[in-house]
Structures are given as C-alpha cells and as structure tokens.
Amino acid sequence: MPRFYCAAPLVSDTELDLPAGAARHVQVLRLQPGDAITLFDGRSQDEYDATVTRMGRSDVQVRVGAARSMAREPARQIHLAVGMPANDRMDWLIEKATELGVTSIQPLMTERSVLKLSGERAEKKIAHWQSVAISACEQCGGNLVPVIHPMQSLSQWLKTPAAGQADHQRLLLSLRAGSTPVARLPVQAGPAWFLSGPEGGLSHAEEEFAIVAGFAPASLGPRVLRAETAALAALTLLTQA
C-alpha cells in the first residue's frame, strides 16, 4: 500500500486535504477515489489507514481511518554528526541512514570539507535533505522522520549543548592508534552521537578538539572508508548493539 508523509494533524474519521507534496505524489501514481493509502506525520510511531475520496486538478482529499502503532525504529537512538561529503554523496548518505533508522543528522563544515554553504543556499540544501529523509521513510516504512539539523562548523557544534550531552555516548571516528573498534565497544542502551569526518577525515587539530569535548576515539578497522560508508557502517553497528 502506498505510504505518504503528511505534516498536517491526522485524526481518525475526518476528511483531509493532503499537503501539496503528498497530493502531487498521489497524482503521479494515478490513484483514484476509493484507493487505499497509508499516512504518517513523522513525529510518532502511529500510521493511519486512509482512502482517497476526491481527486482534483491540483488537490487530493482523503478520509482518514484507523490509527495503528508500528514500531519499526531501532531500540537505540543514534545521531550522526558528519563532515559533509561532496556532490550527491550526502543525499545518498541521508537516504541510507534514514533506512537504517538514524534519529538525526548534523551536517558539519570542517577544514577538509569541499561543501561549505551559508545563508539561503544552506537553508535550501537542508530543506532538500529533509525531503530526502521523508522520501526514504515513505519507502522503508519508518514512521519517525529523522531531523536534519542546520549546518554548522565543527568548532561551533562542539560548543553546543547537543554535542555536550553527558547522557549520550559520544564517539569519534579515528584512525589513531589505540582507538577502540566500534564492534567491541561495551553495549549501551542509551543514545549516542557518532562524529565522522568528510573526505580525508578530520584534521589532527579537529580530532584533538573533539576529544577534549568528550568524544572517545573509535575505529571501524584498518581500511580507509569513504566518508559516507564510514558513517553508515558505524550506524549499522551501533543500532544493533
């Protein structure tokens, strides 16, 4: 059954005009009155049965049916802080991280970052990445849409309350000697931040800054992984811990 994200409040046994994005998607699929769909608002684990009742030229009306709770999220909340990879690799990372159940993603500008944006261009890019996450949730069955946070420099972010949460396990991807393999970390039930660099990794100074801020060096093994591969590998290991 087709699934659609709907930011509007969902209430059983009510009529609803779908937001523009969802309506356009319904029209592209050539659905007709009487066809069944599933709606979710991205903020809870509830999803709703719904039935298309009217197809207009640019609008779609549905009747919202019964709600059901569908827990498809990992038991552990994992947040990724990522030095943004270039080109469309960040799109791919966000799509796959959403499929794996990431809770949020913090895009970072670092010394070796190729992509560095600010102002309106940064806002548009964040909006685009949020739409990528929404589309991934529609496809994979996730009902909680991960938050794509506004871009920040690494130095700015490490000073924020989010990066300093003492109740979160805080890990830094590092190739330095003595880094603990992620697969061998003690099992923890609480949330975690995983900090990973862009192409070329974080600089030595950036790693030192992160360690002083409370991030523990962790390794994914002896191979040098692409920025997007490293983040996804860590997410997979941590969500299964």
Please tag this protein with its features:
five-stranded mixed β-sheet, 241 residues, eight-stranded parallel β-sheet, 6 helices, alpha/beta, single chain, 13 strands
Short synopsis of the structure:
With 241 residues, this protein is of the alpha/beta class. The chain has helices at 20-28, 89-100, 119-140, 154-157, 204-212, 227-239, and strands at 3-5, 14-17, 36-40, 46-55, 60-69, 78-83, 104-109, 147-148, 152-153, 169-173, 180-181, 192-196, 216-219.
How would the global form be characterised? elongated
Could you tell me the strand content as a percent range? 25-35%
Helix content: 25-40%
Could you report the average pLDDT, rounded to the nearest whole number? Answer: 93
Question: Which consecutive residue ranges, at least 5 long each, have pLDDT under 50?
Answer: none
Provide the succession of SSEs.
EEHEEEEHEHEEHEEEHEH
**By helix and strand content, what is the structural category?**
alpha/beta
Q: Would you count the extended β strands for me?
A: 13
Profile the largest sheet: 8 strands, parallel
Termini separation: 32 Å
The Rg value, from CA coordinates, equals: 20 Å
Number of helices: 6
Please explain how this structure is put together:
Helix 2 packs across helix 3 (119-140) and helix 2 packs parallel to helix 6 (227-239). It contains six helices and 13 strands. It starts with a strand and ends with a helix. It is of the alpha/beta class and 241 residues long. The protein is elongated, with a radius of gyration of 20 Å. The strands form two sheets. Strands 6, 7, 8, 9, 10, 11, 12 and 13 form an eight-stranded parallel sheet that branches. A five-stranded mixed sheet has the order 1-3-4-5-2.
